[in-house]
Amino acid sequence: MPAPRPHNSDAANGPVTRPHYRRVYEDIERRILSGDLVFGAQLPLLPELCSQYGVSEAPIRRALDELSRVGLIVRKRGRGKGTFVQKRITPPTILRVLLIGFDLSRSVIEAYHEIYGLLDGVRRGAAVHGFVVQTVGEDAMASLAPPPKDVRLGYLVLSQTPEEYETGGDGDFPATHAPRVLFNTPRPLPGRWTVSVDMEQGAFLGTDHLASLGHRRIAYVGSTRGGWFAPRYAGYQRALRTHGLAEDQELVRETSGLNAGEDAAALDALLALAEPPTAVFACSDYRALHLLNHAQNRLGLAVPGDLSLCGYDDISICETVSPTLTSVYHPLSEQGEEAVEMLFSLLEGAPASEEKHRVLAPRLRVRQSSVPPGG
Fold first, then answer.
1. CB neighbour list of residue 255: distance below 8 Å, 6 or more residues apart
2. How far apart are CA 215 and CA 217, in angstroms?
């Protein structure tokens, strides 16, 4: 087996740190799919693999377990024992997750937590069908080698500006014949298979919860524009109308969500109003956490006694902060799994012209950060 060469399918726009086992896994899978390792070829023994990849036994074992689980290798025991490249009954499939408009070299994970949630579901769904997952940015598309003729190829496309899907911005890249499924389109699109989450309904649930508690001055902190956040702002507005509350533009504060100081300044401005809010709906959990930290640790406010908070996304830290954060659960992982199932249908011959548009429902998770006014 030749020495491994550097390979990083995730490094579309900059260096991305990969766990050791993923580096081993991706190198071996690439060699199998490219034909460098043919059916029946035996992989080196564990000590030699450790030496070749410069890692301990643990990541090698995990990589081999994953390769075995998706059917790329088989382990034989007894006479003729060893680890061998497996013959595939169905054509091997590469599933490329194309990320449009994301700077993958950035270390601000919270800005792109949706990528990680989706990829978790994509990888789980891909494992069921034995798909090989590659994550690439749009800038890397031109440099990707075409897959071998006996390898199927499909795309899942996530854009930071989903409204561009309607103007053909779903990836004007080579291999346009390859099936694709789009994430988070604003509405059904002719000839496209899409899977989205009803973000307007999610924001409605969060704001409706605060209004149902008796809050009448409910602020909105976050972006109001773009495919990711315009629906959330619309949900906030709809909840206010449902409860007969007039929208006060002084209670709407635009922030990027990338800077805690920016969110803190927004809260300062809100609390300086003649009639400050008693509750805030933040369009993302990271914004809500910035507000929580500033309110408690800098302003000395009691949350939720002086100010109730509700976030959006329901990231894991919502359950560990104090007070725990009420939030809207955004089913990212389920969305990723559903997209894989839709792509599988296309790969198996379902006509793309019979477009499907699946919309998943968010859910409200009430915790300690939201109580009636003065509670």
1. 221, 222, 223, 262, 263, 266, 287
2. 6
Kindly report, residue by residue over 271-324, the tens digit of the pLDDT: 999 999 999 999 999 999 999 999 999 999 999 999 999 999 999 899 999 999
Eight-class DSSP state of 325: P
How many angstroms separate the CA atoms of 131 and 100, rounded?
Answer: 22
For the cut 70, the answer to whether the pLDDT of residue 103 exceeds it is no
pLDDT of res. 100: 78
Q: Is the dihedral of CA 110, 114, 116, 120 positive or negative?
A: positive
User: What domains can be seen in the chain, in order of their start residue?
Assistant: 20-85 (1.10.10.10), 93-196+332-359 (3.40.50.2300), 199-330 (3.40.50.2300)
Find out whether 127 and 95 touch, Cβ atoms under 8 Å: no
pTM above 0.85, yes or no: no
Exposure string for 173-209, b = 16+ CB within 10 A, e = fewer: beeeebbbbbbbbeeeeeebbbbbbbbbbbbbbbbbb
Phi/psi region, residue 367 (left: phi>0; alpha: psi -120 to 50; beta: rest), is beta
**Hey, how many other C-beta atoms are within 10 angstroms of the C-beta on 290?**
24
State the Rg of the chain over Cα. 24
Q: Write out pLDDT tens, residues 141-172.
A: 767 777 777 788 899 998 877 666 665 555 44
What is the percentage of the chain residues whose pLDDT exceeds 90? 53
Query: In the predicted model, is pLDDT for residue 110 greater than 70?
Result: no
| Cα–Cα distance, 52 to 170 (Å, whole number) | 39
How confident is the model over 65-84, as a mean pLDDT? 82
Contacts by 317-324, CB closer than 8 A, 24 or more apart: 317/285, 317/289, 318/285, 318/365, 318/367, 319/367, 321/289, 321/292, 322/368, 323/367, 323/368, 323/369, 324/367, 324/368, 324/369
Q: What is the dihedral of CA 329, 10, 186, 229, to 10 degrees?
A: 50
